[in-house]
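TL;DR need structure tokens for one chain.
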Amino acid sequence: MRIAIVGAGPAGLAAAVKLAERGYHDVKIFESSGRVGGKAMTLQVDGHHYDMGAVLVGNRYPHTVSLANQFGMPMFPRIGSRAVVDLRTERWMNVIDAPTAVHSPREYLTALTRVHRYVHRYRRFFDQPGFAFTEFPDLEDLRQEIALPLSEWARANKVDPMLTLWQNALAGQGYGPYSSVSAQYALKFMLGCPRAHLRPDLWRMVRKRPMLLFSFQRGYQALFEAVASRFDVTTAANVTRIIRMRDGVLVHRAGRAEPERFDKVLVAMPLDMAAGLLEDQPSTGVAEETARLFRRLEYTDYYATLAESSHVFEDAEIHFGHGPQKFDRPSTHASIQSCPDSRLRVFYHYGSRQDPSNADAAVAQLRSDLSRAGISLGSVIHTQDWRYFPRFCPADVAAGLYDRAEELQGKLNTYFLGGALAFESIEHTIGYSHRIIERGFPVVDPSTVASYGGAGRAPTREPHQHQYGPLDTACGSSDSAL
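>> reply
TL;DR here they are.
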């Protein structure tokens, strides 16, 4: 079977690994940009690595950790202090102590217990990758409940303190605001798939210990560089049309007179953009339904800015917010220290409230907000603009659009991957790719499951090494990358 994967981000490359484990080696991956990794993007400046997209690996990221071990990618723990800055009052607080300024520890413990019990009650749904209720027709009431905006769901279930507790992880990482995003996303990210356990979370809260987080020594992109080196990956490959037939798929690329024929195609690029590439021959109406569905996806304008700062940060992780009463607006910023001995720092921030899609306006907003805490943003090295966190609005979630998306899987030899159907995190994206491959592609060579998947050996097909270079070629040196 010949398989095409359109998109060499975490979703597409994780699917390639899972296909190889199940005995499929005639796999070709097309990437429109000049590098692999998608939102796992790393810049190199003066010998340091700066993650401009995905940056952290949590202790509940088994798929990511397994992939890192398989490809020999070392990580280091982020054990430095973490701070929260209230931009209204210029008050700095430890990230563990900050929530107690809003609610008492007892209120948090009660709310955390309730929300864990809620997820446990519906663990059949929360333990699966993705958001479809196709397998759970008896849980329609749950679908309607978690389709509510997070703030409404929290009030209905008497767990409002969780909004404060989750502020940094949700609003500070681009998953806000609470008033317009369905509760299911927060629950999936914070507590489900892989499912969190109540006792460790309670123990951390009582002992005031933060969750242990890790990062890759050479940046997140290095992991997917290593994965890509095992496969036939072509970058700068602009796919212009995907023609689906009942017996195969034709993939057209810019600059090539003839299309390539495949048996199956896995679409791992932004699905609203991919919908415009799909055609059916003869026409079946599936392409039109796909376009109508995926063009309803919403995105957040989210940025990563690598810049100098006048402030010498001793904190490894900092969140800048406007106080608890402002949680519902997307204005919380975060900053991660990539290299302790570097003058540079990465700031993750939303766009300007007046012009959210303008990168210059986003940086100006960041400067203005940081100045309230006495921090002057210096020279900006690079700003990366992301179309971030693809999602359906609460009304579309309640109407079952994820179920409709699930029904498209496998139709006309086409499968859909990525954060739009999973969640915008590396772990959820990888887990969803694994699920789709396991359901749609039976094992054809049992020996590869042990040899390739277990020991991390390369597939038998030789990769086209000339088509893709090492990390320093993809990102460039400190001059060419910037």
